[in-house]
């Protein structure tokens, strides 16, 4: 049973911004107390700045400012032990480049240049990268509460308290007598508590682990939706989506230029298009503007869509 | 203040959150927070903890304006109204915010807000969303018997409501429903962009409501959801900003930065969810002038249509807005029938209030002051509005 959790993290952005946070959540007799201890994070900031400097030249020139490198340490105190996890995470345009132990190398050399939508062959198969799958499923779950749409039978969605992103990983002891969901939101979503105005929105979702029961083969060339978001409220008609995209394969891609892809497609069509897994599960992130970054796991998925289906 | 070299905004505060489950289990948690946002030659830096002294003096711990009002008591009162049916979360937040330039304090002020969110079960797996919020001075609303009675009536009516039918209907919007539409259409249309380089001044002069509608934004309004002398840019608020004149957009609401890009003066509408966020143009209290028609006369003049009592989850995006219909009532032969409807959405364009034909003679402040924009949620965004009669309103599934 965790009695105290401290998280220290630092982020450096490609646009010159930086962040450095520390949270401490401690269990008191009256409930939990979250605080922001005065902790020097200079070492973490230095580590993120170094990794940022290494990664920037590996990326296509467009949107380099969107590169973010994060380093942090999570300490969980129980009555008998201290469990420490440190990490280094890099993401670019909400695409996870990698998560590793501090001091490890993260590579960003899988993008070889840029491409614009008019140059994409309309017969190119569409694939979803892990972050796009996670965003799609999280959006679908909002819709699911209306009981109008069911997920495809082959899709396996697991809500779990574990995560590859240490600040959102929380092995909860269900015998502790606490409200597990509340404690999870309190300890594994600490950033929203530091911004208390967003802590008001209670979510009962934890971390999603998404799989599909059948496999698929990589096409020679794919239109890859790297990220996915919709500003529409869920409904049964065609929704407006925005996606960062690449063209190629997982390890050899051309990325989109400055502008993301806007397209219209119903949620039912997108969900039913999911055919099979192209890879083992990878870390994914959905940048939720209210709940903050939500990490999860997903395979790359192939769809039965072609580029022309969503570009027309 | 003008942001320049080594400018810093800082905040120190505390929040309390009490949760109530249908089992009547209650938990209270606290959060003590301190953080700052600095900008200078090396870029923007956000951090938790006290700001470095060279940027901003350390803030004192703010006094608790909610002192003496046990957060649990407020929730318990509501729990007794709806035994084993309420799932609620009450948040109280108070803080001190300040801004400094090169280590010299430019301004400081206290913030105190609260929000009650959650739902009440009404059977058949259905729930009514609850959302009340505002500044600390309004927290007595939580123990106000009139508010309790209204909530009880709303829950009872929704429990026996039929599914709403879709289509276009002549309608009367009650004050709460009218406030949601006014906020989503006029309020957000009048705000400058959260991306300050996007200049929306071309919207000035556009008609977005009927000529009956006069609207101001007033941060100094005493009975509003918020009241402040300085916005989060440190701009003093002296008087209301006229937003709509006879239904035409007269002025935009600006933060200091958006005003600079639009070559106009700021309107003291730069607001931030915390000192670590950039202030962006936000509504303070949106006030619509009342008309001269009683609510009974508005209903009578519709003859056959809908009275929209309550809307929830208002959303504006681009030139469209949506809101969920929590409770509507059928109007037949100019009378309310007691036949309640629920479900469905209002799905309209930003100009929906062009169809307003008459305004009621009394205004009410919407009890829910929560508003999200660009990932920042404020608890204290007020809308005061009279009932409105619309020639038609589109209700979708």
Q: Key terms for this structure?
A:
heterodimer; A: 312 residues; alpha+beta; 7-stranded mixed beta sheet; 6-stranded antiparallel beta sheet; 7 helices; 20 strands; 42% strand; globular; B: 397 residues; mainly beta; 6-stranded mixed beta sheet; 24 strands
Explain this structure.
Chain A is α+β, with helices and mostly antiparallel strands and 312 residues long. Helix content of chain A is 19%, strand content 42%. Chain A has helices at residues 42-55, 130-144, 180-188, 190-194, 196-199, 267-272, 307-311, and strands spanning 2-13, 18-28, 31-35, 67-78, 82-92, 95-100, 111-115, 125-128, 155-160, 207-212, 222-225, 229-230, 238-243, 245-249, 252-256, 261-266, 274-277, 282-288, 292-298, 301-306. In chain A, 43% of the residues are buried. The model of chain A has no long low-confidence stretch (mean pLDDT 87). Chain B has helices spanning 71-81, 145-159, 175-190, 256-262, 295-302; strands at residues 7-20, 26-40, 43-48, 86-101, 104-123, 126-135, 162-163, 167-173, 215-217, 241-245, 248-249, 270-271, 280-281, 285-288, 305-317, 320-332, 335-342, 345-349, 356-359, 364-365, 371-373, 376-378, 382-385, 388-396. Chain B is globular, with a radius of gyration of 22 Å. The longest helix of chain B has 16 residues, at 175-190. In chain B, the strands form five sheets. In chain B, strands 3-2-1-4-5-6 form a six-stranded antiparallel beta sheet. Chain B has a six-stranded mixed beta sheet with strand order 11-10-9-14-23-20. By secondary structure, chain B is mostly beta strands. Chains A and B meet through strand 2, strand 3 and helix 5 of A and strand 1, strand 2, strand 3, strand 4 and strand 5 of B.
Distance between the termini of chain B: 49 Å
N-end to C-end Cα span of chain A? 54 Å
Query: Proportion of β residues of chain B?
Result: 35-45%
Describe the strand arrangement of the main beta sheet of chain B, using strand numbers: 3-2-1-4-5-6
As a percent range, the share of helical residues of chain B equals 10-25%
Q: Would you report the number of β strands of chain B?
A: 24
Of all chain pairs, the largest interface belongs to: A-B, 38 and 49 residues
Number of helices of chain A: 7
Rounded mean pLDDT score of chain B = 91
Cross-sheet strand order for the largest sheet of chain A? 7-15-14-11-8-20-17
* Tally of DSSP helical segments of chain B: 5
Residue stretches of chain A low in confidence (pLDDT < 50, at least 5 long) are none
Task: Please state the CA-atom Rg of chain A, rounded to the nearest Å.
Answer: 20 Å
What is the chain-wise order of helices and strands of chain B?
A: EEEHEEEHEEHEEEHEEEHEEEEEEEEEE
Uncertain ranges of chain B: none
Beta-strand content estimate of chain A: 35-45%
